[in-house]
Design brief:
Length: 289
């Protein structure tokens, strides 16, 4: 039986509705898909930004930790040094100063006797008293050796001497820790000091005292000596007199045998002048040769 007109209209309308529904659904699905993609891209960008920010903060934190560690290390080192100085100034403990200074002190041994010296330059230059390396007749002793803090004996080369100030300059090979000089014009009576030397053959002995007087007159007629009550004995000659900062303010030179605790050290400013004089003479001699 043929389809009636009103049936065709109903079927056509239904078909149109289905088509419109499908188009609408497809459009909505497409819009949802596009929106999801946009949200995903936005989220991905946010995640990427968070990762970059996190990495940046981790880097900053790491650098901060390194700086903090370095700062703490420096501050601890500075604090330890300050504590050593404080203890020494209070007369409580010189051990931190001595432990460092002894590394630069040597025993000077010759065929005719022994004394003390100390390293004043990283290249191995050593200062001592001229009389330490002289024989009984006042001539330069032979076979000069420097026994360092590691208990090794090393041949010491004679560089030169200053007879007026009783200063001699020697040299050993190698690289060494050196003592620094303080300004002897800044010392004052009552300041604490230590003397390091080899009294009576007892290597690297330490005695503590104070500065009893300054600018005392020596046998050379110069007002160039620090008087100290730190114990000095044969073998201390040529050793350093050190202040609480670990700096050399004098070289132990002689004592008055008839009195107690009357030791004398040539002031450091005279020592440095003498070393410079000897070094200049050595340089001139080298240029001449």
């Amino acid at each position: 039986m043929p389809i009636q007109r009103h049936h065709k209209i109903i079927i056509g309308s239904f078909t149109a509705i289905v088509i419109i529904f499908m188009i609408t659904s497809s459009t909505l699905l497409y819009l949802l898909f596009v929106k999801s993609n946009l949200n995903f891209e936005t989220l991905d960008k946010k995640i990427d930004g968070i990762e970059k920010d996190t990495n940046s903060k981790i880097t900053d934190l790491s650098e901060g930790l390194l700086k903090t560690n370095n700062l703490v290390g420096l501050e601890l080192g500075s604090l330890n040094k300050e504590l050593s100085l404080l203890k020494a100034s209070a007369g409580e403990d010189f051990s931190g100063i001595v432990e460092s200074a002894v590394l630069s002190v040597v025993t000077i041994r010759t065929n005719s006797g022994q004394g003390t010296g100390f390293i004043v330059d990283s290249e191995g230059y050593i200062v001592t008293n001229a009389h330490v390396i002289a024989d009984s007749e006042g001539n330069l002793a032979t076979n000069i050796q420097a026994i360092t803090s590691d208990a090794n004996a090393r041949s010491a080369e004679f560089v030169g001497y200053d007879g007026d100030l009783d200063i001699a300059l020697l040299k050993i090979s190698g690289t060494w820790d050196a003592l620094n000089f303080g300004d002897s014009d800044d010392v004052s009576v009552g300041q604490k000091v230590i003397a390091i030397g080899n009294p009576l053959g007892l290597q690297f002995s330490v005695s503590q005292g104070i500065i009893s007087a300054i600018h005392r007159t020596g046998g050379n007629g110069l007002n160039a000596y620090i008087q100290t009550d730190a114990a000095l004995n044969p073998g201390n000659s040529g050793g350093p007199l050190i202040n609480v900062e670990g700096k050399v303010i004098g070289i132990n030179n002689f004592k008055i045998g008839s009195g107690e605790n009357l030791g004398f050290a040539l002031e450091s400013n005279y020592i440095t002048d003498s070393i410079n004089k000897i070094s200049l003479e050595e340089l001139n001699q080298t240029l001449i040769n």
